[in-house]
Design a protein that fits this description.
The complex is a heterodimer of chains A (276) and B (192). Chain A is mainly alpha-helical and 276 residues long. In chain A, 56% of the residues lie in helices and 0% in strands. In chain A, helix 1 (32-42) packs across helix 3, helix 5 (113-135) crosses helix 7 (148-167) and helix 10 crosses helix 12 (252-275). Chain B has helices spanning 10-18, 25-34, 39-50, 62-77, 92-102, 106-113, 124-133, 138-144, 147-154, 170-176, 181-188. Chain B starts with 9 loop residues before the first helix and ends with a helix. The chains are: A mainly alpha (276), B mainly alpha (192). At the A-B interface, helix 4, helix 5, helix 7 and helix 10 of A face helix 1, helix 2, helix 3, helix 4 and helix 7 of B.
């Protein structure tokens, strides 16, 4: 009673705990580094916070991770649209836009309709969550305070799934699954080609074109390619080993056929790119 | 959270995978074993997670700028709903606790609750403590004190109470409540 200091803490910043729960039931928590940085930034002036927030280079020691920006935008939800808050909001949403693949390719030659659709969908969804959170707590946004890049990747996947559905990309392939035979042309095209063994695999430009080509594959094929890149075996004699065939619920032969088909398509796409 | 025996939803599994600290092969494998029914989506997500963060520094296009402008307008328009009725969730016991925490007579808390106090006459420091005690924020309190909010806050208790517009200073409220002078000085102080 009567202790003025009970509630009046100036040096200690109390972070509102997250409300989202893990699948196991415990509450999610922010990374300790993020917590420490929020505490540090909560006591600097708005101007200083903005000055640091505009830094886009992640390697800069003064860089503020997006997890913190989400925290401040949410924590200021009652701050009456002051100018600094608008600035902060714009910085955060700009970061989201910049992280999304553009519709036009880097050389400006081609345009990916799917990229454009995904970009619009993800951005729209993110700002919708932020706005809704102003009136009622949106626990889905908690993921963005736990791991921003991951949460955004999840929105990208959602949008991609919708886009693929709209494009009918997940339709079964034209080839006869029963026989599992590919045309001799495809077999020949795949040949000994391995897109991951290319000498310029470490070249960012090559990787970026390869990624684009993988993305253009039918979904089942791109999944096989991704699992191969992650090092999963196609099949195994050991029953405990996680294999591509097991994960996708396909026979070993089907997976190999799809892989060959994917390799052939990738080779064609990469050769095409080189001619440009 | 999932009750025993109930499978977590596809969305919660995918979101959980997305924020794993080590989203590499072993984590993907673990999720594939736990949730084989979502294998396709998990692999797609794993591919999204393995994408290098692209930090392009090129200036924003006009289209992008317009997207952000539109988003901001929409965001600014989404007003915090809680502002109008920040005290609605507080019970009689809660109000008693507020009076105890602030160490002021109930009468003072009631005057604040009914917004019969001139907002600008409340010292910032006391306001912050009042906001903490009512699980609110200073900005929220300020918003709830605006004329538009007042009518609603009071309409149901008009009987025998002063009508809108008759606000008094915080100091007057303390005097009326019989708070001794030295205690008043403490409460009115802007700093410790």
């Amino acid at each position: 009673m009567g202790q003025e200091s009970d509630i009046h803490h100036t040096s200690e910043v109390k972070l509102t705990p997250l409300q989202k729960r893990r699948v196991s039931g415990e509450l999610y928590e922010r990374d300790p580094k993020i917590k420490a940085l929020i505490a540090e930034l909560a006591i600097v002036s708005h101007d200083e916070l903005i000055t640091r927030a505009v830094i886009t280079k992640r390697s800069d020691p003064a860089y503020v991770p997006s997890e913190c920006l989400v925290y401040f935008v949410r924590a200021s939800r009652h701050d009456n649209n002051e100018a600094w808050f608008e600035r902060l909001y714009r910085i955060l949403t700009e970061r989201v836009l910049r992280s999304l693949p553009r519709a036009e390719s880097s050389d400006g030659e081609t345009e990916s309709l799917t990229h454009g659709v995904i970009r619009d969908k993800v951005f729209g969804r993110f700002v919708e969550l932020l706005s809704a959170d102003r009136t009622t707590y949106v626990d889905k946004l908690d993921y963005f305070e736990v791991r921003f890049d991951g949460a955004l990747a999840s929105l990208r996947r959602d949008a991609q799934e919708q886009a693929w559905r709209d494009e009918n990309r997940s339709q079964p392939l034209e080839y006869d699954e029963e026989s599992g035979e590919l045309s001799p042309e495809v077999e020949a095209a795949a040949g000994a080609y391995d897109p991951f063994a290319a000498s310029d695999f470490d070249d960012p430009a090559y990787r970026s074109r390869l990624d684009a080509a993988i993305e253009a594959l039918p979904s089942e094929q791109s999944r096989i390619i991704h699992m191969l890149m992650q090092g999963f075996p196609i099949d195994s004699k050991e029953p405990d080993v996680m294999t591509i065939a097991k994960a996708l619920g396909r026979s070993e032969k089907t997976v190999r056929t799809y892989r060959n088909k994917a390799f052939a398509a990738l080779r064609a796409a990469m050769a095409d790119g080189e001619e440009r | 959270m999932s009750p025993a025996g109930e499978r977590p939803s596809r969305e919660s599994v995918l979101d959980a995978f997305a924020v794993e600290s080590e989203p590499g092969r072993s984590t993907l494998e673990r999720y594939l074993r736990l949730y084989p029914e979502y294998a396709g989506a998990l692999i797609d997500l794993s591919r999204e997670l393995s994408r290098e963060a692209c930090d392009d520094a090129a200036p924003l296009s006009g289209v992008d700028q317009a997207l952000i402008d539109a988003a901001w307008s929409q965001h600014a328009a989404a007003s915090p709903a809680a502002a109008a009725d920040s005290f609605a969730a507080l019970t009689v016991d809660d109000w008693r606790a507020v009076a105890r925490a602030l160490d002021v007579p109930r009468q003072v808390v009631t005057a604040l609750r009914e917004r019969r106090v001139l907002f600008l006459s409340i010292p910032r420091r006391f306001l912050q403590r009042f906001a903490n005690a009512t699980r609110s924020t200073v900005a929220q309190l300020e918003a709830s004190w605006r004329p538009g909010q007042l009518a609603g806050a009071r309409s149901y208790k008009a009987d025998g109470k002063p009508t809108a517009g008759e606000q008094v200073t915080f100091e007057q409220v303390l005097i009326d409540a019989g708070v001794p002078a030295d205690r008043r000085a403490l409460l009115l102080a802007e700093a410790d």
